[in-house]
Amino acid sequence: MGGGAAALRAGVLALRAGVLAQRAGLAALRALVLGPLWPLAALSGLAWMVLIAAERGPLHSGVALICTAAGLQSVSSRGVLAGALLMIVAMMLPLTAPAVVHVWTHSLAARRTRAVVSMLIAYVGVWAAACAALSRMSFYVRSTAGMDDLPMLCAAAGLALAWQGSAAKRRLLNRCHALPPLPVFGAAAEIGSLRLGALSALRCIGACWALMALPIVAGPAHLLLMAGVSLLMLSEQCATPRWPRTDIRLLAAGGGLMLPALAVLFRP
Prior knowledge:
Blueprint (H helix, E strand, L loop, with lengths): L1 H33 L3 H19 L20 H16 L4 H9 L6 H34 L3 H16 L2 H10 L9 H32 L4 H17 L9 H18 L3
Helix pairs in contact: 1-2, 1-9, 1-10, 2-3, 3-5, 4-5, 5-8, 6-8, 6-10, 7-8, 8-9
């Protein structure tokens, strides 16, 4: 009984922290929209418009479903990758603002635009491949274990909470703030931009993979969770790096959420 009460209190505290993070994410997004990097917000907004239109229009069986595990059975691998690209542009492009500034300020004037575009292509491409792999993996787990939407979402939410409370998550998140120096001249400069985009994506994947799994397994609620996860990740990116430590409360809340999913998975 005491353990259940502790898990409940941990869940309430996690919910409160989530609300505060959403507010911080909205403030960061507003600053991006009103600042010089507004094209990133504009491209992200355009991708959101396509996703919403696909959800309500005749493309519902295509673009919208390939962003969720439930629709993967009827979509080709090429379609999954296309949906993942759209999902990443909508959710992750605002997070590239520090890297864009870094590339712009450390590149020659003649190649600044090309360097930024190269970095973004590498970033989005690596993230989209990871997102497509997550989608396929979640569909495999769902079909193999015979899990419905609610147990699958509980499992993903519990895993995300536990990962959020781990020291490893904080350590990887701190690495996302580190931007390596860039070569200035010749082919090394071109490769450097691509390398920075890929490296930034890999670090972000390491820190945020559990959060990205939430909209993938959410079924009809995937757009809502995409928006919430986007704001949460944006707030984390704008926050000051902290010393890695384990948050027992988040681990307890994550474990409590995962129990229903484990009960379904190991049922006789």
